[in-house]
Amino acid sequence: MKPFFITTAIDYTNAPPHIGHAYEKVLADVIARWHRERGRPVFFLTGVDQHGQKVQQSAEKAGMTPAEFAKDVTAKFKALWKKLGVDYDGWAETTDPRHIAAVQAVLQQLHDQGDVYKARHSGYYSVRQEQFLTDKERNDQGEFGPEWGEVVFIEEENWYFRLSKYRPWLAEHIASHPDFVFPSFRGSELANAVAKEAGDLCISRPKSRLGWGIELPFDRDFVTYVWFDALMNYVTFAGYRAAANAGLPDFERIWPCDAHVIGKDILVPAHGIYWPIMLKAAGFEVMPKLLVHGWWNLGGAKVSKSAGNVVDPDALADRYGCDALRYYLMRDIATGQDADFNEQRLRARYNADLANDLGNLVNRTVSMARRYRDGVLAGAPADKSEDAVALEALGSEAARRFDAAMDGYQVHSALEAVWELVAAANGFVESSAPWKLAKDPSQAARLDEVLCVLVEAARLAAALAHPVMPSSADRILAQLGFSGNLAPVWGAVADGHRVGEPTPVFPRLEDDQAV
Ligand code: MSP
Fold first, then answer.
1. CATH second-level architecture of 342-479?
2. Kind plus residue range of the DSSP H or E element containing 160
3. How many Å lie between the centroid of ligand 1 and the Cα of residue 297?
4. Which of 130, 254, 261, 340 would you call most buried, defined as having the most Cβ atoms within 10 angstroms of its Cβ?
């Protein structure tokens, strides 16, 4: 079976990771885990973007070489993914010699087939944004605003990629492949941008100005500028043009990519225009699909280092645990839309959803099974009670809704379905009142059934939530007496099933705990 191939943007190593980076990686990880848990092979690729002017500049400021600086920041990203349980199969680093060789091979091919050319260009250049500016970028006063940083007039020769030659093909591809971009409103934005896009793409920088990059194989005075360097990672680390001994997967088995998970800021023009055209020019017939997510803002403002409002995911994971952070990041945003990051909301969700709803269900279920039955349960009776049948139906429907939502990348809706099951199971505890049944010997069979139903419901909830909170769900499953059973179905409790020890997985946060 072809693996589900999922990638994220590779994170720029000019600064340490922030909450936006963490969100994207967790989103991709949750989707990857869900596929794996449903039995589908997955190739999940993520990594870091190590070249470029900003890394060169940050390194200079820190008194380090760009290589040392990028290595340092790369280690921070890797440590964070480990802490957050981001379980990738492939790791991309753009300074990797295997990547460099494959990028150069593609550039050479484009050169040989006449798709790149050298030309002289003069104009205004933004040092911060590393791009030439046109009149489009001028503000109402006719000036280049502060967002462009220092703007200088330069004249230089560079290499250009014949983007315009492939533009009609791209417009047609977008029109005929409505699933090229998810969500569809982003596809419409892209179609509009393609209609406006004109001209070719500058793909080089003279080495005199930018030394920290991949050399053009046909003109050693230049390095290739960000696009070929960064975008190509999606194929080079999946084995494209790899040397036989490169230690990378078999590309033919993996391509095409089922989901490039990216933020809305890098759809137009990078992933929506340059990337498919680069692939087409290199000879690709089947194109990848793009999954475009929104942004986490802070008090309505963009999270950015320069605004000084960066939220540190590492500290949050230390404070609340990796799974509580993962849960919040998946629960409080709709994939494709923006959301506002708010630590108070994270705490509120922790206490309400995790400690109270799920945590209590598990704790009461295991405790009652031990108190009333020494931890050993009877399987479901042949003749089930009406309320047990109803909860089972609700559980099966929650599982169906969960998978349908995940298939459409709506992780928050998938979680909603799980918490409806949790709420119904907590309601079942109240309505069936096991503590009353335990006092009446004539109700022994009913108590057996109630305990069995509760263990089933809690197991199903934990199994469904597993991709979002893998280690907590494992702990819950162990307390319920299961190990490794993630099947999203009802009916796992056999006669003689033994539950484990009840230990709170999500201890309540007290209000006076510091934020
Ligand atoms: N290196 C380029 C991508 C090259 S991909 C071939 C880059 N790096 S980045 O570090 O600036 O951003 C990495 C990813 O994080 C992007 O998909 C970006 O959209 C995402 N996010 C950055 N800030 C974000 C938020 N505040 N919220 C959500 N995602 C955000 O772009």
1. Orthogonal Bundle (1.10)
2. strand 151-161
3. 13
4. 261
pLDDT number for residue 512: 55
What does the alpha-carbon distance between residue 34 and residue 45 come to, in Å, rounded to a whole number? Answer: 15
Q: How far is the CA of 337 from the centre of ligand 1 (A)?
A: 15
Atom of ligand 1 nearest to the CA of 230: 6
Give the number of the atom of ligand 1 that is nearest the alpha carbon of residue 294.
Answer: 28
Pocket of ligand 1 (CB under 6 A): 9-12, 20-21, 23-24, 49, 230-231, 233, 262-263, 265-266, 295-296, 303
Domain ranges of the chain: 342-479
pLDDT at residue 274, as a whole number: 97
Q: Which residues of 430-469 are buried (b: 16+ CB within 10 A; e: fewer)?
A: eebebeebbeeeebeebbbbbbbbbbbbbbbbbbbbbbbb
Contact 403, 488 (CB under 8 A): yes
* Distance separating alpha carbons of residues 408 and 414, to the nearest angstrom: 10
Residue 268 clears pLDDT 70, i.e. is over it: yes
Find the radius of gyration of the CA atoms of the chain: 27
Q: In terms of Cα–Cα distance, which of 444, 455, 446, 448 is closest to 491? A: 455
User: To the nearest 10°, the Cα dihedral for 213, 218, 222, 224?
Assistant: -40
% residues pLDDT > 70 (the chain): 98
Judged by DSSP in three states, 120 sits in strand
Quote the pLDDT of residue 328.
98
